[in-house]
Design a protein that fits this description.
By secondary structure, this protein is mainly α. The protein has a domain of about 210 residues. The N and C termini lie far apart (about 125 Å). Helix 7 runs antiparallel to helix 8, helix 8 packs parallel to helix 11 and helix 13 runs antiparallel to helix 14. The chain is built from 15 helices and no strands. Helices cover about 65% and strands about 0% of the residues.
Length: about 375
């Protein structure tokens, strides 16, 4: 069969192997470019960032920016980092804690006190709360008593079972919740203390309470809590942090929330609100986790609220009479013993009353 001869000008050029591969390559590149453009338009931000594509901005109406908006935008760039003095203080406290840990390893642990006398001892006088000049001394003294794991060991005792732990999950959760409000209350109600001073203290107190509670807890609860915190931070920041968020991460989180709400006037106002947010959230715990382990916590909550009220009355109105002062100390120490017996699963007895009175008498004799 005869093949028809093509008309002049209608012949298709014969493609070589090289030109064929080149055309295929260009077609693939066109498809890839089209796919990347579609991805940039419809994909979520996480997928867009993974491919290194910037999402095109949608056209907006031209608006005249006010001077207040420009000022807030300019300070927002540097507001996501905590103040330098906060980080310096936290680093200094970390160094002091490492030194105390090394010292504790070399020395024999001291005998545990019957009562946490350092809570309301002469190391942290109540007069310093109302005195701005001595606020720095009170801050350092308070930090030495409540923001390190070693100090909490001296106050509430050490782990009696180093391998397995000596507190079950429910008791550990009660211990953790009890430490949080008490660790913040002494300086929170002081007139001379500001949120900027209390924010790093609150963060350190919460971290120390978390570490101490996990140290006392049994192995299954300890591992579960560490995995829960670590996985949550890994999903957010890409790092496994079993102790929770760092101070810069916490600062960035709350600063971003406040800036998104546009609820600040200037840089100082933004800093104060972030510090107050850190202080406020340091007293709160996960309600879902609490509901799993705390089913009969009403008695402990009432005792803790009574302790908070006693401490607030002591700081707000210092009795002038020595006898009234001793009575107030006796009431506070008795409340602390009730908390301690509740965590240990034991009942409060007459012997505990005698121990509290003996501690007050010994303290009065030393003064």
């Amino acid at each position: 069969m005869m093949r028809k001869r093509p008309l002049p000008g209608s012949e298709r050029p014969i493609k070589s192997t090289g030109s064929s591969s080149s055309g295929t390559y260009h077609n693939k590149m066109k498809k890839l470019a089209f796919f990347m453009l579609a991805l940039a338009l419809v994909a979520p931000p996480c997928a867009v960032e993974a491919f290194g594509i910037a999402t095109p901005s949608r056209p907006q109406h031209h608006q005249v920016e006010s001077s207040t908006t420009r000022a807030k935008t300019s300070l927002a760039s540097g507001a996501l980092a905590p103040p330098a003095q906060h980080m310096e203080w936290l680093h200094r406290q970390d160094d002091l804690e490492r030194r105390s840990q090394r010292k504790a390893r070399l020395q024999q642990p001291q005998k545990k006190q019957v009562l946490p006398l350092t809570l309301f001892g002469t190391e942290v006088p109540t007069a310093s709360c109302n005195s701005t000049s001595s606020s720095s001394t009170a801050k350092e003294a308070w930090a030495a008593s409540f923001t390190t794991v070693e100090a909490l060991r001296d106050t509430f005792g050490r782990n009696k079972n180093a391998f397995w732990g000596d507190l079950d999950a429910s008791t550990t959760r009660r211990l953790y919740k009890t430490l949080l409000p008490r660790a913040l209350l002494e300086l929170y109600h002081c007139e001379g203390a500001s949120s900027e001073d209390l924010a790093p203290l609150a963060y350190r107190a919460r971290v120390a309470a978390k570490k101490y509670a996990r140290e006392r807890s049994e192995v299954p609860a300890r591992v579960a809590a560490s995995l829960f915190d670590g996985w949550r931070q890994f999903c957010k920041y890409g790092r496994f942090q079993s102790s929770g968020m760092s101070y810069p991460q916490l600062w960035e989180k709350y600063a971003t929330q406040i800036m998104e709400e546009d609820d600040f006037e200037n840089e100082q106002d933004l800093t104060s609100k972030v510090c107050y947010k850190i202080l406020e959230k340091s007293c709160e715990t996960n309600q879902k986790v609490d509901s799993l382990f705390l089913t009969d916590q009403q008695d402990l909550q009432e005792i803790t609220l009574k302790l908070e009220q006693d401490v607030y009355d002591l700081l707000d109105n210092e009795p002038e009479d020595v006898n009234m002062w001793a009575i107030r100390r006796y009431q506070i120490l008795r409340t602390l013993l009730r908390i301690r017996r509740q965590m240990e699963g034991r009942s409060y007895t007459e012997h505990d009353d005698n121990a509290a009175m003996q501690a007050v008498l010994e303290d009065a004799a030393q003064q």
